[in-house]
Amino acid sequence: MTVAAAAAHRVRGRHEFRGLRTVEHVFRVPLDHGDPDGEHLEVFAREHVAAAHPAASADQLPWLVFLQGGPGGRGNRVTSLGGWMKEAAKDFRVLMLDQRGTGLSSPADRATLPLRGTPAEQAAYLGHFRADSIVLDCEAIRRALGSGPWTVLGQSYGGFCALTYLSLAPQGLRRALITGGLAPLDGAADRVYRATYARVAERNAEYFGWYPEDRAAVTSVVAHLREHDERLPSGERLAPERFQLVGSLLGGNTRVDALHYLLEDAFTRGSAGPRLSDGFLAQVHALVTRAPNPLYAVLHESIYAQGAATEWAAQRVLGEFPAFRADAEEPLLLGEMVMPWYFEQDPALVPLAATAEIIAHRDDWGPLYDPGRLALNSVPAAAAVYRDDIFVDRTLSLETAARVRGLAVWETADFHHDGLADDGEAIFARLLAMADPDGD
C-alpha cells in the first residue's frame, strides 16, 4: 500500500462567525510523492467545527474531508452551516481542501505555469496534479493532523478521487461517501463522451419541452453570433460554440431553470438592430470563462486517462452527434465537454494551449484505480447515483459500483448532478447510514 510521510504544517489563522469556528491550515507536500526530497508545494485547507461543540471537546471529533468537484476547483467557501455541512457538523470536524493548484494552495494558472519553462515542462509538472497526487496529499495531511483513518465525502470529481483513495491508500479511510462521482475504472475516454452526449441530448429535449420558446431563442443566438461581432466583458468575441457551453446549467435541478432567465435576457429591446444585451453577455461570460479554474480545462480529459492518450476525445466523438455542432439547423447546448478551440477563445486558457495539446497526446499515464484492490475493498462505502446525471453517466456508474466490494448504492431520479446542493442534509445522512448500517 502507498504510504505518504506527514506533511509540514502551520496554522495561518483562526476565526469564529455565524455558528462556525474555523482554522486555516497550510501543509507542505512533495510535488512528486515518489520523490519526497524534491520540490514541494503548499496545500491549503480550512477546518470547520460547529460552535455548538465546546472547544475543549471539538478536538476529539472525527474528521470528514470534503473532496470537491472539478478538476481544478477550490474548496467551498462557506459563511454559515447549511446543507450537508449542517448535518455533517453534528458529528465531524469538516476539512475543506483546496486541492493542489487551486484556491490558496500553490497556484497553477496562466501566470504561474509559464514560469515552469516550456510547454513540455509545464505538461510534465501538471502530470502531478491528478487524483493520485491529491490522495497522497490527503494522506500526508492526515498524518500531520495526527488523525486515524477518516471519512471522505467526494462530490463529482471528488468521487473519482475517493475511488483512487480506496485503490491507493484504503488504510487512511474510515469510510467513503460519494455523490455523483463513480468514475469508469478502465476503458477509453471515448465511451464516457458517447454516453454523456446522449444524456445531454435527452436533457436538451426535456428542457425544450418545458420551455419551447427557448428552442427558438438558442437557435437565434447561435445564428446571430455567426453573423455579428459580440464581445464578452473580458474583450474577446463570443463564438457560437462557446455560447453553447451555457448548457452546463442543464446539469442540475437547482440551476436548470436559470437557463430560461438567461435566455429571456438575450437581446436588447428597442435598439437600432439586433444586439445581445450587456446583462446577457455578462451572465454568459461567468458561465464560459475558465479564469477561476483553468485546470478544469487543461486536465479535464486526463481524469479518464490510464495508459493511453485521450486525443481530445470530446471533439472526436462530437462527429457522432452532429446535433451539437454550432452549424446544425437547431444546435443543442453542450455539457462538460472541453474542446481544443476553448484554448483559442478564452483569454485564461490561450497561454496554456500548447501545454494542453501535449497533455491531450500524452500516452503514458499511470493507473488511477486498482480494480483488484477495489474488488476486495473492506472500507465501508456508499454512493448516490443520479439516474439522469448528464455529467457522470448512470450506466457507467453502476458498472463501477458492481466492481467495488461492499459499496452500497442509492440510485435516484429525484436529483441531478447538483443533488448535494439541492438537499445535502438528507443525502449526507442517508449515505452515512448506508455506509454504517449499525451506527458504528
Automatic annotation (TrEMBL):
Pfam families: Abhydrolase_1 (PF00561). The keyword tRNA processing does not apply. GO terms for molecular function: hydrolase activity. The keyword Hydrolase applies. Gene3D superfamilies: alpha/beta hydrolase. InterPro entries: AB_hydrolase_1, AB_hydrolase_fold, Peptidase_S33, Serine_prot/Carboxylest_S33. Keywords: Hydrolase. Residues 62-209 form the AB hydrolase-1 domain. Belongs to the peptidase S33 family. This is Alpha/beta fold hydrolase.
